[in-house]
């Protein structure tokens, strides 16, 4: 089944939050899904929609340094391994470039091996940065030129 890439709405975010386990399993990621991101950065918050609902999404923005920052990218449990994450990423990269981005960036915990595998497979460079999220809180910082 193919999906339609389109801009995220507040109604979409409500549905994503209601269906959070389908995207994140046991991890409760609601605290990072901020409604102002949809309101203020709606041109770079994307859903992959289909007749059976939202199959995946990406929330991001372009900062003042012309970096397209990927805040969240997630695919529904029944769409993993279909290339949907790559398609969402490509749509975000296109949109971010249209807004002047010259590179992309994403951050994850050092223990998130799935995120590491995904981002490095699609061409990101990875660097572990000590204390990135505060004292003793290392993070993997992914970067890629557009």
TrEMBL record:
InterPro entries, A to Z: AcTrfase_GNAT_prd, Acyl_CoA_acyltransferase, GNAT_dom
Domain of life per record: Bacteria
Short name of one Pfam family: Acetyltransf_1
Residue ranges of every copy of the N-acetyltransferase domain listed in the record: 3-146
SUPFAM superfamilies named among the record's database cross-references: Acyl-CoA N-acyltransferases (Nat)
This protein's name: GNAT family N-acetyltransferase
Organism the protein comes from: Catenulispora pinistramenti
């Amino acid at each position: 089944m193919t999906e339609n890439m389109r801009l995220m709405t507040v109604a979409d975010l409500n549905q994503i939050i209601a269906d959070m386990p389908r995207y994140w399993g046991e991890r409760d990621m609601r605290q990072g899904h901020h409604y102002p991101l949809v309101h203020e950065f709606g041109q770079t918050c994307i859903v992959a929609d289909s007749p059976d609902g939202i199959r995946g999404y990406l929330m991001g923005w372009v900062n003042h340094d012309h970096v397209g920052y990927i805040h969240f990218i997630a695919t529904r449990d029944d769409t993993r391994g279909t290339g949907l994450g790559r398609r969402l990423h490509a749509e975000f990269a296109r949109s971010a470039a249209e807004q002047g981005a010259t590179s992309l960036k994403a951050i994850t915990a050092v223990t998130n091996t799935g995120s590491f595998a995904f981002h490095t497979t699609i061409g990101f460079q990875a660097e572990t940065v000590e204390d990135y999220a505060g004292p003793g809180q290392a993070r993997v910082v992914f970067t890629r030129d557009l």
